[in-house]
Design a protein that fits this description.
The chain has one domain. Helices cover about 80% and strands about 0% of the residues. The chain is built from twelve helices and no strands. The mean pLDDT is about 85.
Length: about 240
């Protein structure tokens, strides 16, 4: 599993995908940080956290689209599937590689809260929980993208499908006012990524939100394992 993770991490930075991912996150985060704190005169990291959550919807598919689709297209997945490692190890190894790129980006972005601490008086829980929320959100996005990548051999299809699903889950909050049925409204609200993530932006720790994102992550990793297992037995 470690070897798979390291190979994938190296691949990210050999193909510039890792650098592009980090650069886009920092660029958007930097613009929002400047506009919300210098022009607004406040000391808040919420604008950066919010912007990163939106950007992740658009660029997480860059990290996940090739994880299985590329190998399936090149037929190199046959070598991986016959390797002396379990399917679970393969999936987790690839998942951790994408998470590593996300964590590297977040570590670099710590320059924003450091500036706030030095020159302002920010609300510490807002910083800690905001970053914690981004990690949980990013992991759930990556697990969804990994699952979609396991279903196709076309990287573009995987990227577009992943982005579409993430946008749908994020936009569920917007249609809640249009749903008059209380039961359906509750169900849709429970599936809304925005509603779950909003508590972290406010510096509030919500156990239900943590359980939600962890459940989404493990559920789609489980789905991915089952898809790859079916492919392995199909090839044999």
């Amino acid at each position: 599993m470690k070897a798979i993770m390291l190979r994938e991490v190296q691949s990210y930075y050999n193909t510039m995908i890792g650098y592009i991912f980090t650069a886009i996150c920092l660029l958007v985060g930097g613009v929002l940080f400047t506009s919300s704190n210098i022009q607004g005169g406040s000391a808040s990291i919420s604008g950066v956290i919010a912007s990163m959550s939106y950007v992740l919807i658009l660029i997480i598919p860059l990290l996940t689209m090739r994880l299985f689709a590329e190998e399936k297209k090149n037929k190199s997945d046959q070598l991986l599937l016959t390797a002396p490692v379990s399917i679970t190890q393969i999936v987790i190894g690839k998942f951790l590689a994408a998470v590593t790129v996300l964590l590297v980006t977040l570590v670099i972005s710590l320059v924003f809260p450091i500036i706030l601490v030095v020159f302002g008086d920010p609300y510490p829980p807002e910083i800690f929980l905001g970053y914690f929320g981004i990690i949980l959100l990013g992991c759930s996005f990556i697990s969804i993208g990994l699952f979609i990548s396991s279903l196709t051999e076309n990287q573009l299809t995987a990227a577009v499908a992943t982005m579409g699903i993430l946008l749908f889950l994020w936009m569920l909050e917007g249609i809640l006012p249009q749903i008059s049925n209380p039961t359906l409204n509750t169900i849709v609200g429970a599936l809304s990524l925005y509603r779950q993530f909003e508590t972290f932006q406010l510096g509030v720790l919500s156990l239900s939100a943590v359980v939600y994102f962890v459940s989404i992550t493990f559920l789609f990793l489980f789905f991915t394992v089952k898809v790859i297992e079916r492919r392995r037995w199909g090839k044999e």
